[in-house]
Amino acid sequence: MHRTVMLALGSVGVGVVVLALKYLAYWITGSVALYSDALESVINIVAAGAAVVALRVSAMPADDNHPFGHSKAEYFSSVIEGVLIVIAALAILREAYHTLGAPQPLQAPAEGLALNALATLINGIWSWVLIREGRRLRSLALVADGKHLLTDVVTSLGVFAGVVLVGLTGWLILDPLLAALVALNILWSGWKLVRESVGGLMDESVPQEELDRIRAVIFEHAQGAYQAHDLRTRHAGRRTFIEFHLVVAGQMPVRDAHAICDRLEAALHETVANSTVTIHVEPEDKAKVSDVYVP
C-alpha cells in the first residue's frame, strides 16, 4: 500500500479519536463553541475518507482511457473537503444563532476543556505529519488534509480561550458568539481550499518561483540550441507537466537534437520531482521572442 494511502487511512483513525474526545467535551459542558469544534471533526473524518479514495485512484497507472494518468483525482478530494467545510460552517452558524436568544450556563468546564485540549494536541501533531509528508510526496490531498487539521487546531485554541473566558466572567453570550466566529473562520478555510483545487483542475501554471527554477535549468542545459520558447507548465496532483519548443540549427542531425533533449529532460526530472517533459524541436527560422534565451 502506498504511503500516501496509509497516511490518509491514519487520518480517519485520528479523526475518530478526536471526534470522540471533542463530543464528550461538548456533552459534559453543553458549550455551543465546543459543539462547533466537535462538528468540524465529523467533517475531518468524511474528508479523510474521500482522500483515501482519491489517493487510491490517483496512484493507478495510465491506461488507454487516461493516457496522462489519474493524478487529478486528488483535486476532486480537495474540492469535496472544501464543500464539506463550508456546510459545517453553515451548520455551526445556525446553532449559534438559535443559542444567542437563550444562552445556557456551562457544566463542568474544566473537564471539558481538558478533553478538548487533548484532542487539539493530537490534531496538532497529526497535521504537522500530514503537511510534512504531503509536501515531500507532492500529494495535494495530504497537504489539504493537514492544513484543514491545522485550521481545526487554531479554532480549538480559540474555543479553549473563549470557554475559559466564559467561566471567568460568567458572560454566557460569549459562547454562541465564539461559535459564530469559529464558523466564519472555517468558512474562509473552506473557500480557500476550493479555490486552490479548482485552480488545479483548470491547469493553472506552477508558482512563479518554480517557473523561474525551470527556466534556469533549461538555460543551463540547452547548449547547442538557439533558444527555447512557449514554455508551459501545469500541476496535476503529484505530477508536473512541462512543455516548450526548442530551436536548433535546421541542418542539425536528429541524433544531436535528440541528445540535447535528453540532457534537458534529465536535468528537469532531477530538479522537478514527478515531472513529465515534452519538447518540440524546431529549426532556426521558427525562432521568436523566447521564454528562455540559450547561450
TrEMBL record:
Gene3D superfamilies: Cation efflux protein transmembrane domain, Cation efflux protein, cytoplasmic domain. The chain crosses the membrane at residues 7-28, 34-55, 75-93, 113-131, 152-171. Residues 13-202 form the Cation efflux protein transmembrane domain. It is a multi-pass membrane protein. Coiled coil: none annotated. The keyword Protein biosynthesis does not apply. Residues 207-284 form the Cation efflux protein cytoplasmic domain. It is found in: Cell membrane. The keyword Secreted does not apply. It comes from the Bacteria. GO terms for biological process: intracellular zinc ion homeostasis. GO terms for molecular function: cadmium ion transmembrane transporter activity; ferrous iron transmembrane transporter activity; zinc efflux antiporter activity. Its main location: membrane. One of its GO terms (cellular component) is plasma membrane. Keywords: Cell membrane, Ion transport, Iron, Iron transport, Membrane, Transmembrane, Transmembrane helix, Transport, Zinc, Zinc transport. Belongs to the cation diffusion facilitator (CDF) transporter (TC 2.A.4) family. FieF subfamily. This is Cadmium transporter. It comes from Salinisphaera orenii MK-B5.
